[in-house]
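Hi R.,

As promised on Friday, here is the backbone we talked about, encoded as structure tokens. Could you run it through your design pipeline when you get a chance and send me back a sequence?
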């Protein structure tokens, strides 16, 4: 490869082999004879390739090994019809290879391109035939380079392109102008475009109203209108399109049925488009336009073959404790536990989970709460994802725990001061961890602890933070004393400590001493979004109750209280929650954070905004400074519930529905609340509840807007 003025891209940020780039490992392009060719990497990053049997055919060849070990890939045809594939590996190195002649199956060897560690790549073809490559590095900085002339392997140097993005897709407008789309670390979508074809003159970045997103793919209709497809963090799909070619006027976002982990789109020879998607299990699907430029699609069709190289281990009975313990030691294993299974792990502690392990609980109509893992011996730490102390550091990136009841042994009882402290799951410095649709109860210390002594969980890298979502935390309480307190009081849903930071959203908290707490150390913080904190809990002593959302200070000031001044973590954002608890203060900041604590767009049952000097509890309290509140509502103790409206989970029973003006929730037959949507619409604004898309789950219709209920993934 010849580079004109080589520029090494960005800072040399570590991209460790343990990181997984979950999205972007799918690409599709059309070769010179009109056949689409697809490229994807499996769960071990091995590259695979398949192609249409003939142009415009719905039939595809089988997956075949393609060579290379990559995590983000992009494909485009040269002007002479030769396909060219680009990819980034786990170390951030970027490579490309190309067909030696159009329409053949003969490819060049992989060629490495000089660049500092990168994370994602996109490639498009200018109107004059030159390919242009866009890439982001580990610091989310964006860069670009282009062929000096079409069909050659002579390239300009990398140049800064502006923007802080992590996922990219590019397409050419009908008039030859390239348009680049990207997703930033907070899940927001942006795009910019060339103001004139075949030049380096670009518009500024423009944000599109959609988030939180995980990946993006852009295609072009036969009439020249571009169409953009995005995935969200729950694998749901949405799309938008230009209202006319070569303009910056776009339709509203529309739901695109199906649940995909990654998507790619390309135009067929006959003028229609084909959308490809890979789901969470590595299966490939296609959705094809029936007519060019018309919003008429075939629907998803599953293609033979899958790209999931995980080892799957099934636990089907209570006596398979040893099989379970062996399974979670296998890196990247998928451990599926049948509904209704109860695994007694009493007497065990510090149970390490290997990197990439997925522990998935199956749920049925008979056992809607799924399987249970439990202990009756109160271990200091039960399950461990990584390890952070005693000179012994381990990480376990990309672990997932989903659909499991994790029982600490207390039941609904509150732990007395003298009883041992016990943690359900301790997560140490591990990226890409997801804990979802699970239940944590009966833990005397906390359900989940997030710590980061290895400095790998940075608030600026939001997509790599532990994601604690759609769980039910209840009856985790430990008093500080019988009357006056002063002892160590555990009993948290989630704790962040030793610099740990976590994204905590769409959970229900009830009867926890604190719903979420932080130790105040440098770097500790949380993003606390769209949760419900119920009225129960806050048990501090037999005499008084404490607050629910907490960040300690690191120092002790005055004669009353402890950890009530000094450094109080880094950054806490508390938004779109419903705090129904009033037995104590709602949110308390006990010192001064490095950045601040922002509290906004929440509903509080408290009538008073601030706790006052005569101990009248309010929504907020702070001992120093840094708590910034805005756009909150107070005195919201209840909202009307629509009972038995529709079946939201497909179990044959009608569920309850509540819209509180910030979020929508539904109740299942077990009385457990589930997050549905963030919306200012209330129940009176809902037009209809029915299964709109035929998946067996109730959907919500409000006027012309249709909200599709996602299935638990």
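Update: got your reply. Pasting your designed sequence below so it's all in one thread:
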């Amino acid at each position: 490869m010849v580079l004109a003025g080589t520029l090494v891209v960005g800072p040399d940020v570590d991209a460790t082999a343990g990181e997984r780039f979950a999205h972007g490992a799918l690409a599709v392009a059309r070769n010179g004879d009109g056949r689409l060719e697809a490229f994807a990497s499996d769960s071990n990053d091995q590259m695979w390739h398949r192609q249409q049997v003939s142009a415009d055919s719905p039939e595809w060849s089988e997956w075949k090994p393609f060579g290379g070990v990559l995590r983000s890939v992009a494909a485009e045809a040269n002007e002479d019809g030769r396909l060219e594939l680009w990819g980034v590996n786990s170390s951030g190195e970027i490579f490309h290879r190309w067909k030696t002649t159009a329409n053949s199956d003969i490819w060049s060897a992989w060629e490495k391109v000089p660049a500092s560690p990168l994370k994602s790549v996109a490639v498009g073809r200018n109107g004059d035939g030159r390919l242009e490559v866009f890439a982001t590095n580990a610091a989310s900085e964006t860069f670009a380079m282009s062929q000096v002339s079409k069909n050659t392997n002579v390239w300009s140097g990398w140049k800064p392109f502006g923007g802080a993005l992590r996922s990219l897709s590019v397409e050419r407008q009908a008039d030859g102008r390239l348009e680049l789309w990207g997703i930033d670390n907070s899940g927001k979508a942006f795009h910019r475009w060339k103001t004139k074809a075949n030049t380096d003159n670009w518009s500024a970045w423009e944000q599109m109203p959609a988030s939180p997103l995980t990946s993006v793919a852009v295609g072009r209709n036969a009439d020249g209108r571009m169409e953009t497809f995005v995935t969200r963090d729950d694998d749901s799909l949405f799309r938008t399109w230009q209202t006319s070619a070569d303009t910056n006027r776009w339709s509203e976002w529309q739901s695109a049925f199906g649940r995909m982990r990654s998507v790619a789109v390309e135009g067929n020879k006959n003028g229609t488009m084909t959308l490809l998607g890979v789901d969470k299990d590595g299966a490939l699907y296609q959705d094809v336009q029936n007519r060019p430029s018309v919003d008429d699609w075939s629907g998803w069709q599953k293609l033979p073959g899958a790209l999931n190289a995980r080892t799957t281990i099934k636990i089907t009975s209570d006596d398979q404790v040893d099989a379970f313990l062996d399974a979670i030691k296998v890196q990247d294993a998928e451990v599926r536990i049948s509904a209704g299974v109860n695994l007694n792990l009493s007497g065990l502690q510090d149970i390490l989970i290997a990197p990439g392990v997925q522990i998935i609980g199956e749920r049925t109509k008979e056992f809607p709460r799924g399987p249970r893992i439990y202990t009756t011996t109160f271990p200091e730490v039960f399950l461990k994802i990584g390890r952070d102390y005693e000179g012994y550091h381990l990480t376990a990136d990309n672990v997932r725990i989903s659909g499991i009841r994790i029982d600490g042994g207390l039941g609904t009882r509150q732990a007395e001061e003298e009883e041992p402290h016990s943690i359900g799951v301790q997560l140490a410095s591990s990226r890409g961890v997801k804990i979802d649709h699970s239940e944590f109860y009966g833990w005397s210390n906390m359900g989940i602890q997030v710590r980061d002594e290895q400095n790998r969980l940075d608030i600026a890298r939001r997509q790599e933070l532990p994601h604690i979502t759609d769980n039910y935390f209840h009856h985790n309480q430990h008093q500080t004393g019988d009357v006056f307190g002063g002892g160590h009081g555990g009993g948290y849903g989630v704790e962040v400590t030793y610099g740990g930071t976590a994204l905590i959203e769409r959970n229900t908290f009830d009867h926890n001493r604190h719903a979420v707490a932080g130790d105040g150390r440098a770097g500790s913080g949380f993003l606390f979004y769209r949760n419900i904190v119920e009225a129960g809990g806050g048990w501090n002593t037999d005499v008084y109750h404490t607050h629910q959302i907490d960040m300690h200070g690191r120092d002790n000031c005055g004669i009353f209280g402890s950890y009530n001044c000094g450094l109080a973590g880094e950054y806490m954002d508390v938004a779109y929650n419903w705090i129904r608890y009033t037995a104590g203060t709602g949110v308390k900041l006990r010192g001064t954070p490095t950045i601040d604590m922002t509290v906004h767009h929440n509903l509080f049952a408290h009538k008073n905004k601030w706790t006052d000097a005569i101990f009248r509890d309010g929504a907020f309290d702070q001992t120093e400074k840094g708590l910034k509140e805005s756009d909150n509502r107070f005195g919201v103790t209840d909202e009307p519930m629509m009972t038995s409206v529709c079946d939201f989970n497909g179990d044959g029973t009608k569920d309850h529905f509540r819209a509180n003006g910030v979020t929508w929730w539904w109740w299942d037959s077990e009385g457990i609340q589930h997050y549905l949507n963030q919306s200012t619409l209330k129940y009176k604004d809902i037009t209809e509840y029915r299964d709109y898309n035929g998946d067996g789950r109730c959907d919500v219709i409000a006027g012309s807007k249709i909200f599709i209920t996602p299935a638990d993934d």
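One thing I noticed while checking it: DSSP finds one helix and 64 strands in the chain.

Thanks again,
M.
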